[in-house]
Amino acid sequence: MLGHVVPKKIYFAVFGSLLVLTAATTGVAFIDLGEWNTVAALIIAVCKASLVAIFFMHLRWSTKLMRVVFLSALLWLAILICLTSMDFFSRTWTTVPESWRESSSLRSPAPPIFAPPANRPTS
């Protein structure tokens, strides 16, 4: 099976851009952006992953079926992230009582009906 021949110039350009994006990730880590630090790091990470998938995994020159498989994997990843986010953000919707005694719906367990004798003579 013959593969697609990519010029070395493209590989070096992609490698250089990955190095620049890695430096940008490191630079953003030292800047206090508040809640936007995570967003900036994720945007840079998506750019780096896209470059790797397109050029090093030869997705740019692959068939349409391979592109469909890749996009369906991204769709499933998005679905799983959405489901996990919904679970994470909905945890504060119900209140958790601080102790068992504060909640009227939670009762302490009833004593057992049959309790074995405490001091049984041994033979």
Structure, described:
Among the domains are: 1-57; 63-88. 56% of the residues lie in helices and 0% in strands. The chain is built from three helices and no strands. Helix 1 (8-29) runs antiparallel to helix 2 (36-56). It is elongated.
The backbone outline, from C-alpha atoms, is elongated
- Count all strands and give the number: 0
Task: Let me know the average pLDDT.
Answer: 83
Oligomer: single chain
How many H/I helical runs?
3
**Rg, Å, rounded:** 29 Å
**Percentage beta strand:** under 5%
Which percent bin holds the helix content? 55-70%
| Model regions low in confidence, pLDDT < 50 over at least 5 residues | none
Entry keywords:
123 residues; mainly alpha; 3 helices; elongated
Write the layout of secondary structure elements.
Blueprint: H1 8-29, H2 36-56, H3 64-89
Helix pairs in contact: 1-2
Provide a short characterization of the protein structure:
The chain is mainly alpha-helical. The protein contains 3 helices and no strands. It has helices at residues 8-29, 36-56, 64-89.
